[in-house]
Every structure is written in structure tokens, then in C-alpha cells.
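Annex B. Sample input.
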Amino acid sequence: MYTHPKLAAFNQGLEALFREVDLELEDRWGDAYALHPNRPRRDTTANPEMDGLFEIAPDFTLGLGSERGRGYLVSLRLATLDKVDPGCFEVLLEESAALVREKLPRYFPGRSLEVVRDGKRFKITGDFSLGEA
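Annex B, continued. Sample output.
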């Protein structure tokens, strides 16, 4: 399958951004809950999304039925069997969104991108164009 080089570069930037956010969440909150017994410990896989307490990733959505339209959802999951209080999860979600918002300009300079609340989730919206063909 062919992927446009500019789209591949954009996706690589998103991956790098979310890896950095994952590492910061692990530093701050990695001991807050017991790790799921089947989940590898932090720094034991090549991708921090696959180990440690947090899995944070961008998930593209067309935004059908959304007031904010298309974009990348900030998807956050905790790899634990512990009961996670909804209020605490909201704090983690808000902190995740704030970290993504803070780092976006460094990973995508010159692009008009923002992190906005979209219902119960956060979403990256804005200029996803690939420029001139």
C-alpha cells in the first residue's frame, strides 16, 4: 500500500509526540496503579505504547456527528486491573491533552493545530493538509 511521503512524515511526528507524552505520564503517574499482570514493565519493549501503565495514542476519526469534525482523538488507556476512579481518569486525560497541546508546536511548526474538548474526549484538530502535490 502506498503512503504519501508527507502523510508518512506527519504520522511519524505524531508517533514521536505521543511517545514523549507516554514517557512523561509514566514518570509522573507510572506507580499510581498496579500494572496488569500480562503487561510488560516500562522500557521493556521498543515502543512505550506497548509497555508500562499507559497506552496513549492518536486515533484518527472522520468526526461524523461531532461538533469538532475530523481529527485525531487523544486515546488514553491504563493497563491495570485496579479500579480507576472516573475523576482520577479525567485528571489523567486532561493532563495528557495538556502535554499534547504543549508539544504540538515543536513537532509541527507552522501548522495550525489545536487540542480541543470533543464530548468526553480530546481531539487534535486543524490543518492536516499535505501541501502542494
